[in-house]
From TrEMBL, chains A, B:
Cleavable signal peptide: none
Lineage of the organism: Eukaryota, Viridiplantae, Streptophyta, Embryophyta, Tracheophyta
Entry protein name: MaoC-like domain-containing protein
Domain of life: Eukaryota
Domain MaoC-like: 33-126
Length: 165, 165
């Protein structure tokens, strides 16, 4: 669906130097968002996804699987990535996402989502941008989730959402 | 997190022949689920994910991005995969997922999620299973989303959820 060539970093950096004080996205830029998932979030996600896996609700099931407590759904944690991207670039179209679930996320954990632009290519007045995506526990910096995303952005002007860090 | 070797298909097939009439998962088995996403689902997902990208709500934003109508969030459609797996194997732990969003999903589209076991390995009385995962539009068979998932299953005995096809 996407061509596999991206603007090399040095080309992109030189292109963006002229607007270094603007809020134009360039390779290397990092977008962040913090979130603490509640038990209401877990229930709300189960209702909309129909995913009532007991691992997310039942202490005994969680312990049998080797966890301290019921887990927040990994795909709910993952939803931080398109949210971070689209809140900075409304109208962004998601093309792909890889997800590696590294460590459990529990209700009440303070999670920091970090999205970094790693490549960028202009096509037909839109921008195909690759991002590295990860979530860490805010205090311990333990990696809980990582991967890569690709999105088509309508432009490179970043909004600064009120919730961002 | 996961070792990279899986039981070769011929080994697995021979192991499972003795219980061919049971509901024990084997490589090649396919799990399915159909779902029609509603505008309430899209709103519910936005509430829990905080993803209010106008692409999912505003006709003009969707048209500007080249779509006929507002889109169902791709990550909501993706939630069919862990749901399909965990409804057949309660207690399943998600390890990874890749997602390629190929075509738009609109409210009212009849979507079929298809998950097929492609490799399987036993470790410490649990099973690491790789699945191919895809969603198609039920009537046209248009591919809307595909990728791969890896999950740790507590056992290989498949439940038959009432909603499965």
């Amino acid at each position: 669906m996407l061509a596999k060539t991206f603007v090399p970093r040095h080309v992109l950096v030189s292109r963006c130097f002229s607007s270094v004080n603007s809020k134009t996205l360039k390779v290397g830029d990092v977008l962040r968002e913090a979130r603490v998932f509640t038990s209401e979030d877990v229930k709300g996600y189960a209702e909309v996804s129909h995913d009532w896996n007991p691992l997310h609700f039942d202490q005994e099931s969680a312990r049998k699987a080797g966890f301290e407590n019921p887990l927040v759904h990994g795909m709910l944690v993952s939803s931080m990535f398109p949210h971070i991207i689209s809140s900075h670039f409304p109208g962004a179209v998601y093309v792909s996402q890889t997800l590696h679930f590294r460590s459990p996320v529990y209700v009440g954990d303070d999670i920091l989502g970090i999205v970094q632009a790693t490549a960028l290519r202009e096509t037909k007045n839109k921008y195909i941008v690759k991002f590295s995506t990860k979530c860490i526990k805010k205090h311990s910096e333990l990696l809980v989730l990582d991967g890569d995303a690709t999105a088509i952005l309508p432009n490179l002007e970043m909004l600064q959402p009120s919730h961002s860090e």
